[in-house]
Amino acid sequence: MLYLVAFLLHCLPLAMGHYDICKSWVTTDDGPSWEFYACQPKAMRMKDYVTVRVDPPGITCGDPPERFCTHENPYLCSDECDASTPDLAHPPKLMFDKEDEGLVTYWQSVTWSRYPEPLLANITLSWNKSIELTDDIVVTFEYGRPTVMMLEKSLDNGRTWHPYQYYADDCMEAFGMPARRVKDLSTTSANRIICTEEYSRWAGSKKEKNVRLEVRDRFAIFAGQDLRNMDNLYTRLESAKGLKDFFTVTDLRMRLLRPALGGTYVQRENLYKYFYAVSNIEVTGRCKCNLHANLCSFKEGSLQCECEHNTTGQDCGKCKKNFRTRSWRAGSYLPLPNGSPNACAAAGSAFGNCECYGHSNRCSYIDFLNVVTCVSCKHNTRGQHCQHCRLGFYRNGSAELDDENVCIECNCNQIGSLHDRCNETGYCECREGAAGPKCDDCLPNYYWRQGCFPNVCDEELLICQNGGTCYQNQRCICPAGFKGILCEQSKCDSDNKACNSASSTYLSLTPFLISALILQLQRLLDF
Ligand SMILES: *[C@@H]1O[C@H](CO)[C@@H](O)[C@H](O)[C@H]1NC(C)=O
Ligand SMILES: *[C@@H]1O[C@H](CO)[C@@H](O)[C@H](O)[C@H]1NC(C)=O
Ligand SMILES: *[C@@H]1O[C@H](CO)[C@@H](O)[C@H](O)[C@H]1NC(C)=O
Ligand SMILES: *[C@@H]1O[C@H](CO)[C@@H](O)[C@H](O)[C@H]1NC(C)=O
Ligand SMILES: *[C@@H]1O[C@H](CO)[C@@H](O)[C@H](O)[C@H]1NC(C)=O
Ligand SMILES: [Ca+2]
What confidence tens digit (pLDDT) does each residue in 455-493 have? Predict the structure, then answer.
C-alpha cells in the first residue's frame, strides 16, 4: 500500500505539470480517498484584470487638442491628438487593449511645452490582489523610450511603495547609481534593485520599443537558461523569503521622468516631439494563493483564489472556520517534486485528536498522565487544548475559541487591585476603597494617592472641629490651640481652667463626632 501511495503521489502531479492540482482521488489498499498536494494557479496575462490610473490630471494629450511631431520627422508635425475624436484620442485604456493586426493603439501624454520644467507622469497599475510575476514585465513605447524612468511596486494595495528598478541613459547622472545588468547578478544578489542603461539609450524610435523588468533572467540565475531546473528555483523561493517577495506585487507604478530626446539635447525650438506614448504593458503572473489553490477567478471586479485545503481568504491566507486545529501555514514547494499541502485541519482529524484551536502547532504525549496536550499555546492561551486564558487575561466574549483575539489582558491597576487576575467580564478585584473595572477609581469618601485612602474630612461632613479647615480631604488644618486629626483636642494644660471647660463643652456636645473619629482611625489602621 505504501508503495502504491508513493507511486501515485509521485506520478499524478507530474503528469499534470508542476503544482497544477490540489488534490486527487486515489485508491489504496484501505479504499479510495483524497490525496492533497501543494498547488498554484496558472500564469495569466494580468493586464486583463488591472485598474489603471495616470497622474497628474491633465497629463493625457488631447484636451485641448494638440499637434505633435516625431524625432524622425521633427518639422513635419502632421499628427494630432484630440480627446474628443475617437480616432485621434489616446486614453490610458489603449495600453491594455487587444490590438487588431497592424493597428497600434497607445496612451499618449501632452508634449513638453513647459520645458525646462520636467515632464513627469505616473502610470499606476492596481490589482487589489497579490500577484507573483512569472515572466518579464514588458512596457512598449511608441516614438522612443524615456531617457529616465523608474518602476515602483507595492505589496499592500498601494499603502507603501518601494523602488523596483531604475532606468536611465546615464544611471550615475540620473540616480547616482552605477549601471548594472541583471545578467551580471548572482544567486546572492538576485533580488537586488538595480539601475540599468539597457532600455533608455536612443536606438531609433522604431527599432527598440520595449522596456523590461527582467523576471526570466533572474529566474535563470537559479533555474539555468531555458528555465530547465525549476526545482532549484522553487527550492530557493522557499528558503529565501526576500526572493519570493521580490517577485510579488499588488500594484506597479511607472514614474516617467524624462521622455525620449532622439539622441540629442532638448531642442527648445521644437518641443512638440517630446512626449510619452505607451502602446502596451504586459504583466505575466499568477495569483498568489500560498500554494493552496490552482484556480484564480475574477469575481466582483477582483481576482480571488479558489481556495482548497480548507483555507479561505483572497490569498488563501487563513484556515476556514472550524478548521483551525493548528495554525495556518502556506503550502510548500518542498519536498521536491510535489511539495506539501500543509492543509488546515478540523478537530478530530489526523492531528492526533488533540484540538488546540489554532493556538499551537505541536502536541505532546505526557506519559505518566496518559494525555496528549498542546505545547506552547500562543495568543495568551493555556490549557491542554489551549482552551483557557492565561492568568491575567480574560475571555473575549465576542471571539470564537479559535480566534487570535480570544484572550484580553485584564490590565488591573497594580496599586488599586489585589492581584492581576480578573473575572469573566474583565473586572479586577479591588483593594478597600478602590473601585471601577480596573480598580483605578476610588469609592466615594476615598481619595487617590498611590491607592485609595479614606477621606478624613470633606465639604459636606464638615468634620473638622473647633474651626479647623479641611485640606484636600486628607487632613484638618487646625486653628492655634487645637490639635488632633479632627482638631478635637485642645492644646491647653489640664490644670488650666479655661481650657478644661472648653474641652468639656466639646465632649458633651459632640459624642457623635467621637465615634466618627474612631471610625476614621480604624480605617486608617486597617489599611
Ligand atoms: C508619482 O508618484 C510619486 C510617488 O510614488 C509621487 O511622489 C509623485 O509626486 C508622483 N508624480 C506625479 C507626476 O504625480
Ligand atoms: C478588493 O478585494 C476585496 C476582496 O476581494 C474586496 O472586498 C474589495 O472590495 C476590493 N476592493 C476594491 C477597491 O476593488
Ligand atoms: C476539508 O474539509 C472537508 C470536510 O468539510 C474534508 O472532506 C476534506 O478532506 C478537507 N480537506 C483537507 C485538505 O483537509
Ligand atoms: C474581541 O474579539 C473580536 C473578534 O475577533 C475583535 O474584533 C475584538 O477586537 C476583540 N476585543 C479585544 C478587546 O481585543
Ligand atoms: C465580574 O465582576 C463584576 C463586578 O464585581 C460583576 O458585576 C460581574 O457580574 C462579574 N462577572 C462575572 C461573569 O462574574
Ligand atoms: Ca495598445
Answer: 888 766 667 888 888 888 888 889 888 888 888 888 875
**Which 8-state DSSP code applies to residue 320?**
P
Q: What is the pLDDT of residue 159?
A: 96
Ligand 1 pocket test, candidate residues 122, 124, 253, most atoms within 8 A of CB: 122
Helix (H) or strand (E) holding 368: none
Query: Could you tell me what percentage of the chain is helix, strand and coil, using 3-state DSSP and rounding each to the nearest 5?
Result: 20, 30, 50
Contact 449, 441 (CB under 8 A): no
Nearest CA to ligand 3 atom 11: 309
Closest approach atom of ligand 2 to CA 301: 14
Between CA 240 and CA 234 the distance in angstroms is 10
Nearest residue (CA) to ligand 1, atom 1: 122
Cα–Cα distance for residue pair 185/218, rounded to 1 Å = 8
Encode pLDDT of 310-333 as tens digits.
999 999 999 898 787 777 889 999
CB of residue 397 inside a 6 A radius of ligand 5: no
Q: From CA 464, how far away is CA 475, in angstroms rounded?
A: 8
Which triple of cell numbers denotes residue 467?
474651626
Q: Which residue has the cell 466582483?
A: 300
Whole-number Å distance, alpha carbon 307 to ligand 2 midpoint, is 17
Rg, the chain, Cα only = 38
